[in-house]
């Protein structure tokens, strides 16, 4: 699956996107976050526990309990505001 990072997160991780193959047992967005933290210090910083960031699965906003089965893309982004 493709994992994409936006805004400051891509600088912290070091890439704007990457192809990953999570191991068995990575079933939800939250599981993926925990697994990705172990990939590098940048991943750990960008996806820190308690950090303020959101996720989208296949371009739809997602909570961390959303299942990844069949997902082609997961994106992570910092909070944003509009007006």
Describe this structure in words.
The chain is of the alpha+beta class. The chain has a single domain, classed as Ubiquitin-like (UB roll). It contains 3 helices and 5 strands. The protein has helices spanning 8-13, 29-37, 41-46; strands at residues 2-5, 17-19, 54-57, 60-62, 73-77. The chain has a 5-stranded mixed sheet with strand order 2-1-5-3-4. This is MoaD/ThiS family protein. It comes from Reyranella aquatilis. InterPro entries: Beta-grasp_dom_sf (IPR012675), Mopterin_synth/thiamin_S_b (IPR016155), ThiS/MoaD-like (IPR003749).
Amount of beta strand? 15-25%
CATH topology: Ubiquitin-like (UB roll)
CATH C-level category:
Alpha Beta
Detail the poorly predicted runs: none
Largest sheet: 5 strands, mixed
The main sheet orders its strands as 2-1-5-3-4
Order of helices and strands: EHEHHEEE
Number of domains: 1
Tell the overall outline: globular
Instruction: Work out the radius of gyration.
Output: 12 Å
InterPro entries: Beta-grasp_dom_sf, Mopterin_synth/thiamin_S_b, ThiS/MoaD-like
Pfam families: ThiS
Protein name: MoaD/ThiS family protein
